[in-house]
Specification:
Length: 195
């Protein structure tokens, strides 16, 4: 099975009944039927980490491909930028929830009925060959494989979580937060004079 490559046809307008438009092909692979024995149902290779720019096209494509209505999207808050609370979709507003306890390498789309769809996120800066291999791999039989194993087979770095944690630490330090790890000045004894 090959990855499904979708592109959008209608422009995004202020009305929520419009289908979001993406200028380039949406890089998405999705199993036609979910398999609960796999950790992911497909993969998505966004063009950037800007959630407001990337999510409308993904929601429209998944809705159309699965013939379901996405009601909520869950993602890791430290990996994405510009995360809106809601995304306009055809006839509705899709809620966006961001969490720090979830795996930063996946995004979850929830529907009114049925199981949610979990997609492996291929980082936007990934080389085309490795990204396409990941898109193709997630549509094959990957039952029993962990996300790390899938990424290893696709020759992608297995762990993005430390980067997100390091970015948080850098933000905290930049804002005058924790002082651990900073060099401390040795205390200098003052000379005392005897009376």
């Amino acid at each position: 099975m090959t990855p499904t490559i979708l592109s959008q046809a209608a422009p995004l307008s202020s009305a929520s009944s419009a289908i979001p438009r993406v200028d380039s092909a949406l890089r998405l692979s999705l199993r036609p039927a979910p398999n609960r024995l796999t950790v992911v149902d497909g993969a998505w290779w966004p063009f950037s980490s800007d959630a407001a720019a990337e999510l409308p096209g993904l929601i429209a494509a998944v809705d159309r491909l699965l013939d379901r209505v996405t009601l909520r999207v869950g993602l890791h808050g430290d990996v994405w930028q510009n995360i809106p609370r809601r995304i306009p979709a055809r006839g509705r507003q899709v809620r966006v929830g961001w969490f720090r306890h979830s795996d930063p390498r996946v995004i979850t789309l929830s529907f009114g009925t049925g199981e949610p769809v979990v997609l492996l996120i291929v980082p936007s800066g990934t080389a085309a060959g490795a990204a396409e291999a990941t898109l193709k791999l997630t549509t094959q039989d990957i039952a029993g494989l962990s996300i790390d194993a899938i990424l290893t087979l696709a020759q992608l770095p297995a762990d993005r979580a430390p980067r997100a944690a390091a970015d948080n630490s850098a933000r905290w330090e930049n804002e005058g937060g924790s002082v651990t790890g900073r060099a401390t000045q040795p205390s200098v004894e003052r000379p005392t004079t005897s009376p």
